[in-house]
Amino acid sequence: MIGFEDLVGQQGPVQLLVNAFKKGKMPHAWLFTGETGVGKKTAALELAKICNCQNRSAGSSHSPESETGILPRSCGQCRSCKKAIAGAHPEIRVINPSKMLIRIDQIRSLCAELGLKSDEASRRFIVFAGANRMNAEAANALLKILEEPPEHTVFVLVAPDTSDLLPTIVSRCQHIRFNPIAPKDLETYLTDQCDKDHQQAMIIASLARGSLGRAKDMAGQDWTERRRFIIDQLRCLQQQPRGFRHVLAEILAGDKDRLEGIFEIMKNWYRDLAVIKSAPEQIYNRDIIDQVRAGRSEISMDALLEISDALAAAEKAMESNANTRLVIDKLIERLAMSAAGFPLNQCA
Length: 348
What we know:
Elements: H1 11-22, E1 29-33, H2 40-52, H3 79-85, E2 92-95, H4 104-114, E3 124-129, H5 136-147, E4 153-159, H6 167-171, E5 174-177, H7 183-193, H8 198-207, H9 212-219, H10 223-236, H11 242-254, H12 259-275, H13 289-296, H14 301-319, H15 324-338
Helix pairs in contact: 2-3, 4-5, 7-8, 10-12, 11-15, 12-13, 12-14, 14-15
């Protein structure tokens, strides 16, 4: 069972949460921002479990241990904790995007639930995972709730940053920024918890860009082979016939569970091509630096800027619930058109 002490590299944010809990000064709304996979949602759910645990280990404002620096922890065994761990606690609700968006119907349903009296927990927690994906109607409806929050209810909004949230919503939340996790901390986690050797851990930590969730996904999959395949295809796109590119798009679009990781591989590759000349020490794909150098000599910076725009447009389209196959088809064609600098004899 994960507790606050298990969050890697987040001592500052955790301490702010612990202080609020111990002092009994819990705001009615938190906003947790930071890179995907750094522990924002995990922290929100652990805070909810601790506040509702019937036998927590430490941290009550009336506990002699509350000033010792010991982190409060849910017991994991009481009725409340077991329900929370199973995702069935009636007073701990997670609102996830539905087809990439949090919609007005979800907020209306929530309002109906909030009108019901809480009879089990000392605090009701509503966690908005992907709060940045609220449509305009949903955001305005949530704002009305935050302006007159129900008693004994805590809202936690989880988002990468504040840019896609209404400023009026941000102003009504206590904001905590979660840090990108240092590569050394990720390396330690990967060697200790995922049985990766030092070289593997170093490569994954570099490419994970401060995200433990991303590092764990990479460690648990045949990620190295997938990266090789994707990079090989990117370097050869221009010479391939249109039919081949359509087949590639079909393969990528059909692997929806890994599509986010595929986008990360693409972004990391083209980003490395852009920075290799000016800052080689900052590239992510350090273990294939010779390929990065070769690739950079074969493509212009203008083309890399066009490719960056194409990737951003594709990700935005995916977030808007566009047809996956059409989005990937269009992306592959744009990448091929921008790859004019790749000579044919460099294909793997």
